[in-house]
Amino acid sequence: MAILKLPVRDDLRFQSFFVILDGATYKLDFEWNIRSEAFSFTISDIDEVPILSGRELAADSNLLSGVPSTSKPPGLLILSDTEGRGTGPRLGELGSIYELLYFEAETVATL
């Protein structure tokens, strides 16, 4: 039972990494979109098959909500706004003001 703080960095416009969530490996991609001035998020399985592609990051919401795929992680993936701004992260804020948290399925079940 755990809440994991995922290793996003605040100094990159694009970042990609693999992470183990509830025992399965996923690839997470974050990309800054100059036109919309927002980060988009993609999650893929271990074979890099997209589960969710290009969702704009929103503060304090489950980034996986509404995703019907049975291959998505069973817990909650939350972008936590540590300063209560109520917006999505801007450049230099993802990983500092906005933390990416994963609530494992067992933790969610006890809430």
General description of the model:
The chain has one helix at 105-110; strands spanning 3-5, 14-21, 24-33, 38-45, 50-56, 76-81, 98-103. It has 111 residues and is mostly beta strands. It has a 4-stranded antiparallel β-sheet, with no helix packed on it. It has a 3-stranded antiparallel β-sheet with strand order 1-7-6. Strand 4 and strand 5 (50-56) form a beta hairpin. It is globular, with a radius of gyration of 13 Å. The N and C termini lie close together (11 Å).
What is the percent of helical residues?
Answer: under 10%
Total number of helices: 1
Q: What's the pLDDT, averaged over the residues?
A: 93
Q: Terminal Cα separation, in Å? A: 11 Å
Number of domains: 1
Give the biggest beta sheet: 4 strands, antiparallel
The oligomeric state of the chains shown is single chain
Order of helices and strands: EEEEEEEH
Low-pLDDT windows of residues? none
Could you tell me the radius of gyration in angstroms? 13 Å
Instruction: Give the neighbour order of strands across the main sheet.
Output: 2-3-4-5
Strand and helix map with partners:
Blueprint: E1 3-5, E2 14-21, E3 24-33, E4 38-45, E5 50-56, E6 76-81, E7 98-103, H1 105-110
Briefly summarize what is shown.
With 111 residues, this protein is mainly beta. Helix content is 5%, strand content 43%. β4 (38-45) and β5 form a beta hairpin.
